[in-house]
Structures
1.
Amino acid sequence: MFPTHRPRRLRRTPALRRLVAETTLEPRHLVLPMFVADGIAAPREISSMPGVYQHTLDSLRAAATEAVSAGVGGLMLFGVPKPEDKDAQGSGAIDPDGILNVGLRALADELGDSTVIMADTCLDEFTDHGHCGVLTPAGAVDNDATLIRYVEMALAQADSGAHLLGPSGMMDGQVGAIRGALDAAGYTEVGQLAYAAKYASAFYGPFREAVGSSLQGDRRTYQQDAANRRESLREVDLDIAEGADMVMVKPAMSYLDILRETADRSPVPVAAYQISGEYSMITAAAQNGWIDRDAAVLESLTSIRRAGADVVLTYWASEVAGWL
Ligand code: PBG
């Protein structure tokens, strides 16, 4: 009548559970995405992401310093230009005085090599049409013309002190084009965290508010279809062949299968991005008293690590690093 096997034995006390826990979550595994906005006098909370702010340069420095003190592995910076500074070419992304490049210099000045400073290398925050690239006269996103802009953007970001660039626009050949340009300019040590498998996701919704995006239409001609997995493996292989130093899967929680497969085959470190909508879902449910916020946050991050992420980008990075 007695079960031969009793897996519950190893779950009985916190000490037993701690002894046999397979997955670790440490501050260094977490990267904090941050937004720096031009033309605001005080930090502005993003209404669909309670607790996440568009920063001024001063509040960016302070929040970044706090995150680094808490032990996070790095920072990923996004720029939010003034609406009137956006144009069809996304010129603000390339301008050394554009807000993202100014923000990168502020971080580099404040923190130097004490953390890893990453930059979003994509035009959507800077284009008036909101797409990740420049458009053909017919309104399609022009892959190869966009690569020329990415190269210029990458050089400006390297010049501003970024350690790792994060090409996130899903243009074909973006990693190789950026690698070639960085090397030719002498930035052989500046690396790329390539958004290799990036899906067209409804869960990016709150991010659009975060960066004041004016996107009309969708990104389905360049971001991946949620129905596909082989396509991701191909994207990962191509990015690695083009010189990616790390690859990323994004979003995280709806794509843990892709993350596991990527981690199993990738010779380079793998990151996953727990995106805005994932943050907002947990935050909203917790605000309603429907789930235990802190437990849900830790469970979500642990599951992303368990699925194979070496590094997790999460808006909770600074807070969770503090808990750990
Ligand atoms: C593109 C970019 C996006 C995000 C990160 N980089 C937006 C998009 O692809 O639509 C989304 C991040 C998030 O939702 O938290 N620059």
Note: Residues 24-323 form a domain with the TIM Barrel fold (CATH 3.20.20.70).
2.
Amino acid sequence: MAKMWAGRTAGDTSKLADEFNSSIGFDSRMFKEDITGSIAHAQMLAKQGIIERKEADTLCDELLKILEDISSGKLPIDMDAEDIHMFVEEELTKRVGDVGKKLHTARSRNDQVALDLRMYLMNRVDELCADTKHLIAALTDKAEVYKEAIMPGYTHLQRAQPVMFGHHLLAYAMMLLRDVDRMTDCKRRMNISPIGCCALAGTTYDTDRYFEAEQLGFEGIAMNSLDGVSDRDFVIELLSDIAILMMHLSRLSEEIILWSSWEFGFVELSDAYTTGSSIMPQKKNSDMAELVRGKTGRVYGDLMGALTVLKGLPLAYNKDMQEDKEGVFDAVDTASMSVKIFIGMISTIKVRTENMKKAAQRGFINATDLADYLTKKGMPFRSAYKISGSIVAYCIENGEVLETLPLEKYKEYSDLFEQDLYEDIDLLTCVNKRNSVGGTSVQSIEQQIRFVREKL
Ligand code: ARG
């Protein structure tokens, strides 16, 4: 097939090489950005007197029609084209004749692809941030409902101290707030226009890069043309941010999977987000959470792929860089789906507060409070810790719990124990006494909810 760039070479490329070289299969999704960029470019060329105003009008009108035709499905994208940039330019020239060939003046596919990718990813970052904020809102709403639901808080996956389920959910809201913050920050650096860097060295034409960037809504322009065409930091940064976001979702997935097991029985997922087994009739599997956990691995792979492709690449553009797109598109698509799934899963989750409470009552998770009780009565903490440990050991051996162990028994360990100890080791008291800022008390949870909602 004759190439637009045929000139230096006369012989045809092999069919296999064409297939190998082509990126249309994955870069066609940037058709809108490509056309928008070309319209801005034509406008700039006319403003600078590099092409006629009439010619620019013809180019822009037809580019808009091409955009409409692709969007409506009237113009199918030719999968035999080399990439989306070539496809649009070829279609334009087919429609308007020779004037179409003027569009690529003072431009290269190297700055064009860098521009398109930035614009495409900036839009996707906006969507992903908006979705993540919805998820944060869903978590916060649930946290409000369950701000007084006691559950065991864990360290080492051993019951540690009682916390409210709402407090636990808000921990994830905080993580996701940071994710939004990171992606927003990444977008700030992405918001720099590379167009006008041309192939690598700039151009001899009297272009106006600021005008072109401004039309496209960019905040600034790349100040070094070599860097402008070969910078893919924004891809790697976004991939890192998404990898962290997925890591957070994966941790929550793991907890949801544990919580919905028979062993925990803390939550039940809606049927809309679970599957059955083809053989075991009793099963209700948390496949969605498992998939999010699994897909996190895949997103890490996308990040490693991009880092590895860029490593050791000499300046400026190298075809290796075509490999930047599939991974980042996959990561954005995966994260976007995962966040959406989570919004539904969290909003419909049923919480078994009774089971959570029962589990909280059985793990001696008020033993710290028992030690604190003695400390407040004047005993040094280390001694109080030791005595409380011995009482727990006695209870375990004799099938007792701290809440119902008789006062006489307590007195065998220390004279400081009085009737008011029962109040201090009551689970609700234990939780609400943890009223330090960021603690698990109801009051603190309410403060956290206000904090999160203010950020949304
Ligand atoms: N399809 C290419 C990419 O995705 C476009 C840039 C090609 N430039 C070039 N000089 N071959 O990176």
Note: The chain has a mean pLDDT of 96.
3.
Amino acid sequence: MKVLELVDIWYEVEGKTILREINARFEEKKVYSILGTNGAGKSTLAYLIMGLEGYRPTRGKILLDGEDITNLSVTERARRGITLMWQEPARFTGIKIRDYLTLGGKRKVSEDELERVLETVGLNPLLYLERNVDEKLSGGERKRVELASILLMKPRYTILDEPDSGIDIMSLEMIERVLSELVSAGGSVILVTHREEIALESDYAFLICHGTILKEGDPSTIVQFYKNSCDKCDHPNEPQE
Ligand code: ADP
Ligand code: MG
Ligand code: MG
């Protein structure tokens, strides 16, 4: 079966346990959310799934279609179709948005598709396609460009870390469009968020608190539980975003 699995994942850094006993299954063509307050461990979990440098579980396994990918590099995981959109957008500079999206011509993509993905992320192709990527682009605009690039990539698993953070005018509608495009291209999405409205866009939700999964299931049930029990859940030393 095609599935990404986290099996009893633990993560410690500097003697501090950040994640413990994480078990999760992510199937094909589904949207999952990982919901939790600030400091719960969501980004750390996202980095572990992506396999960023320094992010290897202290214990446990990550399996993709049964293959153990726990110790694979980011590049090797990317090759298998896993991608991550950071909470902070990348600071790519010096090229046109068109070239960024087509990988300088290496990614074969029609003009129509280029325009369509920009529209999906709320950027007018007439204004943006030939625009240079530079400091004049806001964080929100950069994040949208990054999302457009992911749409062209059609990954098997897209991890979106706080997809609405940094986007000037938060639009749930835009996130809905992005999710449905990724799923109709055959992919699955892991939405990392502290916002109930975003979690409600998923098919299945995991509630993470103090580094562990407290509850999982139907998003509306999970959101209700989050509202009642986790709102006041405090994670020391974490500034609110
Ligand atoms: P979230 O994304 O849910 O806001 P994070 O995964 O960023 O949470 O962080 C979870 C907890 O782990 C926080 O208390 C954070 O301070 C701590 N943490 C994260 N990375 C490190 C690190 N490299 N060293 C020490 N503590 C860390
Ligand atoms: Mg945080
Ligand atoms: Mg985070």
Note: The chain has nine helices and ten strands.
4.
Amino acid sequence: MGPPGAGKGTQAKAVADHFGVPAISTGDIFRANVGQGTPLGVEAKRYMDAGEYVPDEVTNKMVRDRIAEPDAEKGFLLDGYPRTLAQVTELDAMIDATGHRLDAVLCLTVDREAVVGRLLKRAQIEGRADDTEDVIRRRLEVYAEETEPLIEVYGERGLVVSVDGMGEVEEVQQRIFDALDDVPE
Ligand code: B4P
């Protein structure tokens, strides 16, 4: 978990590889569908381009289907999900139904100026439609309204592992591994 530009996608792959599980990124799945022009992609694009969240029903169904795939049988890392309270409830139900357990909720903390700078830099390299200054501002607002409160929800369950996301990618990665070492098996 973390605001747009915190480094979620950047770090997720390395953490998932380390634990030998797939990294399931809702943003990546949406972008792949947008690229292929599927009905899901056409619907998601409208929201993503405006900096809004894709509706919960659509996102929840997509994650439920992805988690049911064989490579997720032994566990998985979720990148960018859950982002709303309704998604938390749905994830709880999915976890119960599949016999999995939520081990930790990793939260990357970063300064607002740093995330804006990172996303504007990515805009120059990748040209993502949601990396313009106006859309970034909206994404940060939506994050504060919808997703930040979830940190308290998971904090009350004792699951939050907070990691400083400032600094070089490798430095942040090392902090993540150190913090996860302290999570009980
Ligand atoms: P995401 O794909 O999750 O986009 P993001 O929040 O920008 O994070 P991302 O993982 O891409 O970026 P990162 O911080 O790694 O979501 C995109 C959209 O999809 C959402 O706005 C929403 O519309 C939709 N969506 C996704 N999940 C949803 C859900 N559950 N419910 C509803 N809608 C959903 O990296 C950003 C940049 O920073 C990169 O260029 C990276 O290279 C750079 N960077 C990373 N770490 C750095 C470091 N330490 N130093 C310098 N640069 C760094």
Note: The chain has a mean pLDDT of 95.
